[in-house]
Design brief:
The protein is mostly helical and 500 residues long. Helix content is 64%, strand content 2%.
Length: 500
């Protein structure tokens, strides 16, 4: 490889003294982008991309590294037979390691100018997640790191978010989704050209300014993208057993605006929302107020079997609930909700047993069996399972000499027991997390207000309003010189003030 070729790329590095002010830094980066495009096309015959990538550092030479690497990835894919991924791009391959290294260590400011190249590399990394199940968890961790590298809050929605959760589901690596799903999305970018603001290489520039389709980081955002992201996120939380977050994500799907009938994903979210509320809360709450009445009516009409199941659930009739659940088996299987319906039926029994604690301190097992409409032996084993799992705070005495019937005794919690302390700590942690989210949301609102305040439309409106106020003030001053108040005016003013 020609040393002169590498030196031309290395010369594009931004010296420390040029990184401030941001406007000067941005001018340097724009010049680098133009020169990289020329160098990549002109030097392709003089050296191989692998050699050049060895001589560059992804953290210090982010712009040229992104261009050369994305071009090399594209060429490698073209060499694959039947659209297969070549060995060098498979997990552990030489080019794959360079791809991961760039996405996880690139300069977070310079990478803002390489949106199209970043998107190509992210899509390639996602495709490798399904090639080797033993590496799937690591690949998904690299994807979340790459997203957070460019947007530490992950608050601006991109199609990379959707790509991420899709592959989380495909690779069954739900735990790796937490770093992204736990962060609130506050901005859904449009395809329009952004208004002129501070240079995007400024450390204080919010991600909503640069993580946009216009800069190549994302495809144009559609309503279906947003709904799929939250629906998939809800399913991931359900797999992790975080029911409250799952319900919250389902409500995000239900609350998306529609111009006509609800989408298929909204109907699917409603069905899961009904079942999940029954499983967690024992009842279906009032639908979120953000859902329009016509939309809610349509969703309920096509989800009638689920609403009927909810009504039977609240009747506390286990036999009727089992019959209803069995009758709708075809519906549950077709919708992919059979497992959730089964969990709802189990939850119904648990809630019925737990409700007995409000009335009894102890009662024979045969009475519990009668309430659950089960045989005594089945009920006894069921209660043992609940106690051993910690679901039911009770003890179960077995048949012994002199005791005819086994008895279920509830263990009422004392005032300062360990369970109460654990619940208190959990509540405190939730409150702390909520305070943090509110502070973060406040910062995003301030950023949005600032962007709106300097937009062309608002500036023009403010200018016209100010001119109108000034003309009004001048007219009032002229009237003040030309017209002298009279005694009659004073009387009228007094009478008006008295009336007020």
């Amino acid at each position: 490889m020609s040393s002169n070729a590498l030196e031309r790329y290395l010369a594009l590095r931004a010296p420390d003294e040029i990184r401030t002010p941001p406007s000067k830094y941005q001018s340097h980066l724009y010049d680098s982008l133009k020169q990289v495009s020329k160098l990549c096309s002109g030097d392709s015959a003089k050296f191989t991309a692998e050699e050049l990538l060895e001589g560059l550092n992804p953290e210090e030479d982010t712009v040229p590294y992104a261009f050369i690497l994305s071009s090399r990835v594209h060429d490698s894919r073209a060499l694959g037979k039947n659209n297969s991924i070549p060995k060098s791009l498979q997990p552990g391959g030489a080019l794959w390691q360079k791809l991961v290294g760039f996405l996880t260590t690139c300069d977070r400011l310079e990478a803002r100018y390489c949106g199209r190249q970043w998107k190509v590399l992210m899509e390639m990394l996602a495709k490798t997640a399904t090639l080797d199940q033993s590496m799937a968890s690591s690949v998904m961790m690299y994807m979340s790191t790459a997203i957070l590298r460019l947007d530490t809050t992950a608050s601006t929605f991109t199609t990379a978010h959707l790509l991420f959760v899709r592959h989380i589901m495909a690779t069954n690596t739900a735990a790796q989704a937490i770093p992204i799903l736990e962060l609130s999305i506050n901005t859904f970018p449009t395809t329009s050209c952004p208004t002129a603001e501070a240079p995007i290489c400024s450390p204080h520039t919010p991600s909503s300014v640069y993580m946009i389709p216009f800069n190549g980081f994302s495809d144009p955002i559609e309503l279906s993208h947003i709904q799929e992201y939250y629906l998939t996120g809800a399913m991931i939380y359900m797999e992790l057993g975080n029911w409250q977050r799952a319900i919250l994500f389902l409500e995000q799907v239900l609350s998306t605006p529609t111009v006509s009938n609800p989408t298929g994903m909204m109907v699917e979210a409603y069905k899961k929302w009904v079942l999940l509320n029954l499983f967690v809360n024992g009842k279906v709450p009032q639908a979120p107020s953000t859902i329009t009445p016509p939309t809610l009516k349509t969703m309920k009409s096509v989800s009638k079997a689920y609403d009927v199941l909810a009504e039977v659930f609240e009747e506390s009739d286990p036999k009727k609930l089992r019959a209803e659940a069995f009758e709708g088996n075809d519906n549950w299987h077709r919708d992919g909700n059979f497992g959730l319906v089964h969990a709802v039926a189990q939850s119904h029994q648990e809630q019925m047993v737990q409700s007995l604690e409000n009335t009894f301190t102890a009662l024979p097992v045969y009475l519990v069996a009668r309430r659950l409409e089960k045989s005594q032996s089945e009920t006894e084993q069921y209660l043992k399972d609940l106690v051993s799992a910690g679901t039911l705070k009770a003890s179960l005495s077995c048949n012994e000499d002199g005791q005819k019937e086994p008895v279920l005794r509830f263990l009422h919690s004392s005032k300062g027991d360990t369970a109460s302390e654990a619940e208190e700590k959990q509540l405190q942690a939730q409150l702390t997390a909520q305070i943090y989210r509110l502070k973060e949301l406040g910062q995003h609102i301030s950023d949005a207000d600032r962007r709106v305040a300097i937009s062309r439309e608002v500036v023009e409106y403010t200018r016209k309003a100010r001119m109108k106020d000034e003309r009004g003030a001048e007219d009032a001053m002229d009237l003040g010189h030309d017209v002298q108040p009279t005694d009659e005016d004073d009387d009228n003013e007094m009478s008006l003030s008295e009336i007020a």
